Amino acid sequence: MTDTGTTTPSRASPRPLTVAALYRFTRFADPAALRAPLEGVCRRHGVRGTLLLAGEGINGTIAGTEPAIAAVLDHVRALPGCAALDVKFSAAASMPFHRMKVRLKREIVTMGQPGIDPNRSVGTYVEPQDWNALIADPDTIVIDTRNDYEVAVGTFDRAIDPKTASFRDFPAWFRAERERLLGEGKARRVAMFCTGGIRCEKSTAFLKQEGVDEVFHLKGGILRYLETVPEEESLWRGECFVFDQRVTVRHGLERGSYGLCHACRRPVGDEDMASPLYEEGVSCPACHATRSDDQRAAYRERHRQETLAAARGMAHVGAVLEKDALEKEDG
């Protein structure tokens, strides 16, 4: 598999914390044996976030001081096959995670398709500076592989939204739509993109397995595009959802304008917040009908405790605001 490269955080940034989104597809013979040492180095250096380990590799997002993140990345790069680890850096004014978790999973990004191996077959990487020309070509089919709530926040010009609630739904969607998209006499070139690149590793490998030859994906994902392509040249519209307390980012990876519903983990904009179904920390228009009064009461109490803890300058021990964030991204 081609190395997807690594960017480095700016040392001139006045902001105190570094956020590192990382992944690597590689073969771990015993991922369970890697868990405790990895979690130990994270905790020793005060790093927080979530890392997923599986037989197919590692995936996660962590935050801490620049030296602390460097120490954890040194440890990860020493793991089997991880020397060419893909990392994307950004900065945060405050810690975007409440705790450190290292979890064992069947897949580091769940597609649920047997035999998919990005180490064996994957689409052609396209550098961010070359992406505009590819997706502007009318002979290119552009597919956003992210979940529906992510696409609603922002996407590229001409991108098709599969309207999937989970990445597990993508294979069925493609098989159902294949004839319409790639039938006789139609464009055969497919370009796909996702937040950081990991889902596209699997989705392009899946399309190759399905017999599609001309498959391309954005190297480093949306995050690297927003980091490197000047806004005045950009074909990106809106903001990009990220799986931490920043919620969304804009060009230059500056924090975006969206809030987060802590009940369903979906982004909420100004229109959502103006809805009578929105209550901070409790519900939003997307999830209000799916939660019971008892659940909303529990969320309300949690939010009250978090607010009190914040006013006292304390971390709320029971808060799990990033709960299952990677599993949500994973799915």
From TrEMBL:
Enzyme class: oxidoreductase
PROSITE patterns: RHODANESE_3
Assigned EC number: 1.14.-.-
Catalyzed reaction equations: uridine(34) in tRNA + AH2 + O2 = 5-hydroxyuridine(34) in tRNA + A + H2O
BP terms from Gene Ontology: tRNA modification
Pfam families: Rhodanese, UPF0176_N
Domain Rhodanese: 136-234
Record bears the keyword tRNA processing: yes
GO MF annotation terms: oxidoreductase activity, acting on paired donors, with incorporation or reduction of molecular oxygen
Keywords: Oxidoreductase, tRNA processing
Stretches of the chain forming a coiled coil according to its record: none
The organism's place on the tree of life at top rank: Bacteria
InterPro entries per UniProt: Rhodanese-like_dom, Rhodanese-like_dom_sf, TrhO, TRHO_N
Similarity comment text for this entry: Belongs to the TrhO family.
HAMAP family documented for this protein: TrhO (MF_00469)
Function: Catalyzes oxygen-dependent 5-hydroxyuridine (ho5U) modification at position 34 in tRNAs.
Protein name in UniProt: tRNA uridine(34) hydroxylase
Originating organism: Croceicoccus marinus
Gene transcribed to yield this protein: trhO
